[in-house]
Amino acid sequence: MNDPSLILMVGDLTYANQYLTTGGKGASFMEPLTSRIPMMVIEGNHEIEPQVAGITFKSYLTRFAVPSEESGSNSNFYYSFEAGGIHFIMLGAYVDYNSTGAQYTWLQRDLNQVNRSNTPWLVAAWHPPWYNSYNSHYQEFECMRQEMEALLYQYGVDIVFNGHVHAYERINRVYNYTLDSCGPVYITVGDGGNSLAKGKFCWDSQPEWSAFRESSFGHGILEVVNSTYALWKWHRNQDNYKDDKLGDRIYIVRQPELCTNSSTSKGNDATGKGSSIANGAPALLAKWKWFISLPFILTTVM
Ligand SMILES: [Fe+2]
Description:
Elements: E1 7-9, H1 20-34, E2 39-41, H2 58-63, E3 79-83, E4 86-90, H3 102-113, E5 121-125, H4 142-154, E6 159-162, E7 168-171, E8 174-175, E9 178-179, E10 185-189, E11 210-214, E12 218-224, E13 229-236, E14 248-254, E15 275-278, E16 288-293
Parallel strand pairs: 1-2, 1-16, 4-5, 5-6, 6-10
Antiparallel strand pairs: 3-4, 7-10, 7-11, 8-9, 12-13, 12-16, 13-14, 14-15
Bound molecules: fe (ii) ion.
The site of fe (ii) ion has 6 residues, from loops.
């Protein structure tokens, strides 16, 4: 299992804080991994790095190549790619996300072109979570959710990955803060490093849309089994891959035939929507394995 095909890093690549050499140290630290495994990135708030003359995102734009042009985007801040039966949508939370803007227009076009026969799984990722029951960063990007959530729901996004909050949380399928079996599973894996959220939640009791939350250092692995099943595992780092020490494990199940209110996309699996979460284990025929983590974080929280 510790042999991923791809690393997905969902923002705050380093805490360089305008010192680009610090970002270089972070890259060197990761080199044993990134020299042999592709890593796809998206910008976080620590990539803004405001500098003189209004320059921002200098390190992100200079150091990382992303397939924006190949995916029809005119910006490295949002793009898409496909790998192992998944169409990945990487969204920018720190650029214009309004429904009248260029990113939204690109997103509409990209979603409409997804062929769910080729890539049955539709996974979206951006840095700050929309659904988060921690005190830290609670509803910080509510405006982005209000602008974009309906579009992702319409096209049947299966899973959303976020970071930003220094903790782990898995959200039940939800749409507009209401449990909905046709909504995405949201997973926050902001527990890659730095100081953890101190276990303070917005509510003493867990809201119904929050399925699992724990403030421990960790990382997750998504293993796509086939067009129906994907196995998600979240590990505490200190548990060191001991199978009996899993922090969270769940099968995410696609059942597009159960949802009829979505847009038609190409392919015989027209909607892509409708899925459930199962604890039962189907026959496991691992085809693709993905490693999803937050970056190594070098200095203190901003
Ligand atoms: Fe962040």
